[in-house]
Amino acid sequence: MTFTQPAYRFRSGVFTPIPLSTKTPILLGLDKELSVLKRNIELLISGAGALNILLWGEKGGGKSSAVKYLLKEYTDRGLRIIEFSDDDYYNIYILYNEIRAAESQSFIIYFDDVSFDETDDRYRKFKSIVEGGLEEKPKNVVFAATSNRRHFIAETPSKSEDIYSRDLQNEQSSLYARFGIAIGFYPLGRELYLEIAAFYLKDAGIELKDGWEVDAESYAIERGGRSGRVAEQYAKYKKILSLDID
């Protein structure tokens, strides 16, 4: 197969191109994180060996946008992203065969919003995909996953120190260790949130009137907290209110 499009969804052995926005994602306040990610992709493209990537933390913090940013930055240098479902375990080796045949390109196999509970068998299937068996993943591939949880799985207080509890902890740690780059996306502080909101307001042509900071803060509180996504939504909300509708 020739991977002419930047992004695909691979499901049940079938590739489907993913339409992407033409805009480059705006990620304010994440310069350090993006620098690490870009250096890793440089290694992937050069064939020097790159690390799997875990982006975890708050919803709306920019995890998925960071992946889209990498694709925008490196599409012209042969980077492609393939979205893969964590429960499509048996087709991973079919995907590997296609990727090996495209050795001049580099790939991110992307798992979006991965989350399990302790009784979810999909967790072990996902772990098998990432850890691999006798067949290693191609050299021109890294895994990238986003999750609200650092270890992908809902952690409950251990009621005992029995063998089962320790085995579960070891299993979680072994999966986490497969992601050599793990970046946490935390709730925004007030100053950074307002900086991002001001950027989006100006981009939308909205004047920053006296008291706008209090209004922006109230909007964030009503939506459960500060994030880049909430800041962008606030600007769009103010734009809607500014429209003249007869």
3D structure, described in words:
The protein has about 250 residues and is α/β, with parallel strands linked by helices. It has two domains: about 5-185, Rossmann fold (3-Layer(aba) Sandwich), CATH 3.40.50.300; about 190-240. The protein contains eight helices and seven strands, in the order ββαβαβαβαβαβααα. It has helices at about 30-45, 65-75, 90-100, 120-130, 165-175, 190-205, 210-220, 230-240; strands at about 5-10, 15, 55, 80-85, 105-110, 140-145, 180-185. It has a seven-stranded mixed beta sheet, with helices on both faces. Helix 6 crosses helix 8 (about 230-240). The longest helix has 16 residues, at about 30-45.
Write down the CATH topology of the largest domain: Rossmann fold
How many DSSP E strands?
A: 7
Spatial shape: globular
Oligomeric composition of the shown chains: single chain
Total discrete domains: 2
Strands side by side in the biggest sheet: 2-1-4-5-6-3-7
